[in-house]
C-alpha cells in the first residue's frame, strides 16, 4: 500500500529538481543550428528500476533528439549482428581523453579509438548500413523500440540541420574511408549516423533504456529482450571508460556508474542490477555534457551510496 505522503523516492526527486532548477550554468548546443531552439529551462529527471517502477519529475515528457546517447545502443546492435571480433577490427575500446568530435584515429590503421566518440560511432553506423542503409535504419528503429517499448520517430528538422552542417563528421567519415575502416561510399553510413542521432526520445524513454541495460538487456516494462547479456556487459564497459568523453575519468570517479551523454542535453546512467537514471537539461558544459545532468547524477549517487566501487 502507498506510504502516507507518497513515495520517499518521489519526494527526494521533487526536492532535488527544485534545488537544481535555478542553476544557470552551461550553454545550449548551437553547432547543429536546429538544436539552438531548445529551452535552457527544460529539466526532467526519470528513474526506472529493474522491477519496473518509474519515477519522474519535471519535463520528462518533453521530446528531444537522442544524439550521442544513441551510440552505445547502436554499438550493442553491431556486436549482436556482426560479432565482437569484426566490430573490434573496425573500432577500438580505449578512451581518448579528447573531445567527442576529435579527429583522433589510430595512426597506422585509422581505427577510431572507441565507439562513443563521433568517429567510432560513424564507423559503427557504416557497418550497420552495409549495402542497404534503409534496411539499417529500419533495424535501428526496431532496436530502439525494443529498449523503449514504443514506436520511435526521427526529428526530420534536426536531421536535415545536421546533415547540412555536419562537415566535421563528414570529414571523419571520408578520413576513415581513406583507411578502409569504412568501405565503399562513406555517405550512406554517415547519413544513418545523422538519422540515429535525430531519433526523438523523452526522459522517461531514456530511463527505461537505461533500466533495460541495468536488467541484463531485458526491458523491465515489456519483458522484451533488447540485447544479449554478454553484449550488455561490453556496452556498459565502453560507457564506463568512454561515455562522458574527456570527462569519463572524472565521472566514474565521482558518480561511479556507466553513463552516456548527448548534445541535446540528455544523460543516462546505469546501475547494473538496479536502475536506469535519466536527466534531460539542454545547457552543456565545455565538454558537451549537461550541467544539471551531471549535478543530478552526482547527488543521487552520493545520497544513496550508489557508486559501483563503494561497498556499503
Ligand atoms: N550528432 C551529434 C554530432 O555528431 C552528436 C554529438 C553528441 O551528442 N555529443 O555532433
Question: What tags apply to this protein structure?
Answer:
5-stranded antiparallel sheet; 312 residues; Beta-lactamase; alpha+beta; Glutaminase; acetylation; hydrolase; binds glutamine; EC 3.5.1.2; two-stranded antiparallel sheet; glutaminase activity
Could you outline the blueprint of secondary structure elements for this entry?
Layout: H1 8-20, E1 44-49, E2 54-58, E3 64-65, H2 70-82, H3 84-90, H4 118-129, H5 133-148, H6 156-165, H7 167-178, H8 186-197, E4 200-201, H9 203-214, H10 229-242, H11 248-254, E5 259-261, E6 266-271, E7 275-280, H12 291-303
Antiparallel strand pairs: 1-2, 1-7, 3-4, 5-6, 6-7
The structure holds glutamine.
How would you describe what is shown here?
The structure is a single chain. With 312 residues, the protein is an alpha+beta fold. It has 2 domains: 8-66 and 200-303, Beta-lactamase; 68-197, DD-peptidase/beta-lactamase superfamily (Beta-lactamase, 3-Layer(aba) Sandwich), CATH 3.40.710. 45% of the residues lie in helices and 10% in strands. It has helices spanning 8-20, 70-82, 84-90, 118-129, 133-148, 156-165, 167-178, 186-197, 203-214, 229-242, 248-254, 291-303, and strands at residues 44-49, 54-58, 64-65, 200-201, 259-261, 266-271, 275-280. Strands 2-1-7-6-5 form a 5-stranded antiparallel sheet. A two-stranded antiparallel ribbon has the order 3-4. Helix 2 crosses helix 10, helix 4 packs across helix 7 (167-178) and helix 7 packs across helix 8. The mean pLDDT is 96. Bound molecules: glutamine (GLN). The site of glutamine has 11 residues, from loops.
